[in-house]
Amino acid sequence: MSVHPLKPAPRTHVTTVVVGAGQAGMSASYYLCRAGVDHVVLERHQRFHAWKADRWDSFCLVTPNWQCRLPDYPYRGDDPTGFMVKDQIVDYVEGFCNSFAAPLQEGVTVTRVQKVGGVFEVDTDRGLWSADHVIVASGGYDTPITPAFADRLDPAIAQIHSKSYRRPSDIPDGTCLVVGTGQSGVQMMEDLWIAGRDVRLAVGPAPRSPRWYRGRDATDWLHVLGYYDITIAQQPDPAATEGKTNHYMSGRDGGHEIDLRRFARDGLRMYGSVSDMDGTTIRFLPDLEQNLDTADKSYVGIRQMIDAYIAHEGIDAPEAPAFEKVWRPQREITEIDAAAEGITSVLWCIGFRPNYDWLQVDCRDARGRPIHTRGICDVDGMYFLGLGWLHTWGSGRFLGVAQDADHVVKAIAQRGRTARAV
């Protein structure tokens, strides 16, 4: 009896596959539609899932609404200097998506991408695709980061990651130790503080920014200064710039800056960076004051940039009071007994890492970071969008993602024209 080998499952071919339907993937789709490039957008959840499902209740933009500049869809509301809250953000991105007919397939998980004979094979849990181009727009927030020593913490102490936090009532009764002072960490700490919860903070080296300074929002000044136009290639140390934590401040209740020294003066107990855990013992590095100084250095540096610009341009702007350190730690606490301190939960706010296990294409460096120039890889037909500092500070945000998507799609269209000519 002869045995006939199984035929490989048929693949649907398109010119371009876009992986991910957040603002980056949908911006790419917009320009692909406009350029007449056949494509499909594959999204494992639903479009804009992160905005809809991975944000806490009081979440709002940290950058003002005027920076929302998706392709041909700028913010059109009546509060350009305000800060949209979560539901308004969802309405904005949905409005953008409804402005064109994207070939979107939701609930489709990409399981493997590899290049075979000049064509990309894209395997999913809902069928097989092939493409001449693949745009990876899946973002960098796949895997929440927790340190290995977190496994040694007493299991009676609840551990929550920022991705799972929605509201203060999610946190068990008792004292919560928030770990990390990026934008999420300080805002979640403040959320708990406003709710009257007993909260403490392990302070990392994240920088901070003024909010309103000399008559304007600091981001307005940075815009006219040209800060948002500086490219990653123009940075003195591009790798270090890519790894930097965003400056912390808040858009809550009209926007305000966050000075952790003021919270400490008002009773917030703070420690340095968490260095170890064992049972109910939590250890910290003696770097609290150093980290506060690092944050203040960036804060003062931004003020000085603005001051210099105002002076150079002869702008009539109100004076601002001199910066003052309103609190300093009297001593560095390097070890506590969480049980004795009444700590019943730890809220981890130390970031995420992307998961590219499905991407079997040689386009990443030894650290696992994509190798590209403004989203275009050396591997023909491979592209990335939506990453922080892909090209400028705004690349991973509403401000700059459209320009990057336009740039990538123009490269795809040009390659197509060249191929047809040949």
From TrEMBL:
One of its GO terms (molecular function) is monooxygenase activity. Keywords: Oxidoreductase. It holds the Pfam family Pyr_redox_3. InterPro entries: Auxin_biosynth/cation_transpt, CHP04046_FMN-dependent, FAD/NAD-bd_sf. PANTHER family: FLAVIN-BINDING MONOOXYGENASE-LIKE PROTEIN (AFU_ORTHOLOGUE AFUA_4G09220) (PTHR43539), FLAVIN-CONTAINING MONOOXYGENASE (PTHR43539:SF78). This is Putative flavoprotein involved in K+ transport. It comes from Loktanella fryxellensis. The lineage of its organism: Bacteria, Pseudomonadati, Pseudomonadota, Alphaproteobacteria, Rhodobacterales.
